[in-house]
């Protein structure tokens, strides 16, 4: 079968330190904001605990025990033919509290080993500097990203990393899903303090909370732009990308009010941050949004200059599902964890309420190309589902294969449309903890990990049926999707 994927297309998978590594106190690591989140479910939201050592189940403390499975996991990726592995660095392995000047050598050594092993196996590391966590001390003592001083702490951490791994890593992402913080997760993404026992992932924000989130987000955007400039100055071969949670919104009907609302949702969800990181300034809609919500944001001349000078080299994003908007307020609902709007009658939904919509991915890829004309990477995509071991000890995850097949086909079609797509990393190539619910039962991997929702299990790795399938896809450069 013909393939539209160009030669050298990057195929691989992704993980995030706090959802994969575990070993939360190993080798001098400090506790991160993620270490303070208890487990939840689709009906029971995750809660925050000030004391991360209190009795209770904290999923990030053990996660998939990736920290102790590094070699074996990289071998599995190499066996599948990965040419790229997207992973994040836990800031707390390098700077346990976040405001130190000297890094923790054991942390530096750990990631050096990871990157060297990747290189030895022909895998390009794609490194996220901050994926839904920061040193907890920066939240407790400074109030998280609400404090401008975090810009300097982050820049110091990032510069240390860029210097340390010069030549080993070329592709960088400054912040995971930078747009999530003000939309859903002010603690998760921005490290803003929440009361003990509170639910840190929420879809409703008061104007006061928005003021705090958008201020903190502004600090992240400035920090990101500074790091882009430093990365380029240190080595012109460094490629730095933004990473946006791709939240495509459709109008429920052709009623102009619905169409306008969907346009506004796309602007707010995707372009508020994307425009700053790609074009170097806030779009007009951001200013309108601040007025509507009575937000006072201080963008100094110096900030504006930094944003303008630190624009990214590529645009990366996650894509799982699309949302649907209606102007009829009575119809709006929470359709699943982390998604609001209304159900789309043309789509099917997972057990967690997420729609399956490969055409939305093609739409988004085309929209981004028209808007930014930058190389694109899909750095998260996958199906969170319950997997069951058969009596023969296998996992026949045909539903996951079907999901991935349709999305890879959509990417191929988008490339034929003229999109410059350079890479694809499936989310959670190995089972890991869900960010939204803290569950292990919401599995994304093509490799199963033996552990349950209380942290029990052997952590044994078991390739699923989708493993061999994805291996064939990669070997054929996307031609063999059967
Ligand atoms: C993205 C995040 O929001 O979606 C990941 O970058 C997350 O960290 C993924 O795991 C899937 O969401 P969830 O809630 O199913 O883990």
CATH architecture: Alpha-Beta Barrel
**CATH fold-type name:** TIM Barrel
Instruction: Tell me the domain tally.
Output: 1
Q: State the order of secondary-structure elements, H for helix, E for strand.
A: EHHEHHEHHEHHEEHHHEEEEEEHEHEEEH
- Which consecutive residue ranges, at least 5 long each, have pLDDT under 50? none
Task: Indicate the structural class.
Answer: alpha/beta
Helix content: 25-40%
The whole-number mean of residue pLDDT values reads 95
Which small-molecule species are bound to the chains here?
6-O-phosphono-beta-D-glucopyranose
Q: Identify the strand order in the major beta sheet.
A: 1-2-3-4-5-7-13-14
Largest sheet: 8 strands, parallel, barrel
Would you kindly provide a written description of the structure presented here, covering whatever features stand out?
With 482 residues, the chain is an alpha/beta fold. Helix content is 37%, strand content 14%. It has an eight-stranded parallel beta barrel, surrounded by five helices. A two-stranded parallel ribbon has the order 6-8. It starts with 9 loop residues before the first strand and ends in a 7-residue tail after the last helix. 6-O-phosphono-beta-D-glucopyranose binds at residues 16, 19, 132, 176-177, 245, 318, 338, 380, 384, 427, 434-437, 442.
């Amino acid at each position: 079968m013909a393939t539209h994927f160009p030669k050298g297309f990057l195929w691989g998978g992704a993980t995030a330190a706090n959802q994969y590594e575990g070993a939360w106190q190993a080798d001098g690591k400090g506790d991160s904001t993620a270490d303070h989140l208890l487990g939840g479910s689709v009906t029971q939201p995750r809660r925050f605990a000030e004391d991360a050592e209190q009795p209770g189940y904290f999923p990030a403390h053990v996660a998939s025990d990736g920290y102790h499975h590094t070699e074996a996991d990289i071998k599995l990726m190499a066996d599948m033919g990965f040419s790229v592995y997207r992973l994040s660095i836990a800031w707390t392995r390098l700077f346990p509290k976040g405001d130190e000047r000297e890094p923790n050598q054991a942390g530096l050594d750990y990631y050096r080993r990871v990157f060297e092993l990747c290189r030895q196996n022909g895998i390009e590391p794609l490194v996220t500097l901050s994926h839904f966590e920061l040193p907890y001390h920066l939240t407790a003592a400074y109030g998280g990203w609400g404090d401008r001083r975090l810009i300097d702490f982050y820049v110091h951490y990032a510069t240390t990393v860029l210097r340390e791994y010069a030549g080993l890593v070329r592709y960088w992402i400054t912040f995971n899903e930078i747009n999530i913080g003000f939309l859903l997760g002010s603690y998760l993404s921005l490290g803003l303090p929440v009361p003990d026992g509170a639910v840190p992932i929420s879809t409703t924000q008061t104007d006061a909370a928005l003021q705090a989130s958008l201020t903190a987000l502004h600090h992240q955007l400035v920090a990101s732009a500074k790091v882009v400039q430093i990365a380029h100055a240190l080595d012109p071969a460094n490629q730095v990308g933004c990473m946006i949670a791709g939240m495509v919104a459709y109008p429920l009907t052709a009623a102009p009010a619905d169409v306008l609302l969907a346009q506004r949702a796309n602007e707010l969800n995707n372009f508020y941050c994307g425009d700053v990181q790609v074009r170097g300034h806030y779009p007009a809609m951001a200013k309108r949004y601040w007025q509507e919500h009575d937000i006072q944001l201080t963008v100094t001349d110096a900030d504006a200059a930094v944003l303008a000078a630190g624009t990214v080299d590529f645009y990366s994003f996650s894509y799982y599902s699309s949302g649907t908007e209606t102007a009829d307020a009575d119809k709006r609902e929470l359709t699943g964890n982390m998604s609001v709007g209304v159900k789309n009658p043309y789509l099917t939904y997972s057990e967690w309420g997420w729609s399956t919509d490969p055409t939305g991915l093609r739409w988004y890829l085309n929209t981004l190309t028209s808007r930014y004309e930058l190389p694109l990477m899909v750095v998260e995509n996958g199906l969170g589902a319950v997997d069951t071991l058969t009596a023969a000890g296998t996992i026949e995850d045909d539903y996951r294969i079907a999901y991935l097949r349709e999305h890879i086909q959509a990417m191929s079609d988008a490339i034929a449309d003229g999109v410059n797509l350079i890479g694809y990393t499936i989310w959670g190539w190995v089972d890991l903890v869900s960010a939204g619910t803290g569950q292990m039962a919401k599995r994304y991997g093509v490799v199963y990990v033996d552990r349950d929702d209380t942290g029990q299990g052997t952590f044994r790795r078991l390739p699923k049926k989708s493993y061999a399938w994805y291996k064939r896809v990669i070997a054929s450069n996307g031609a063999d999707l059967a």
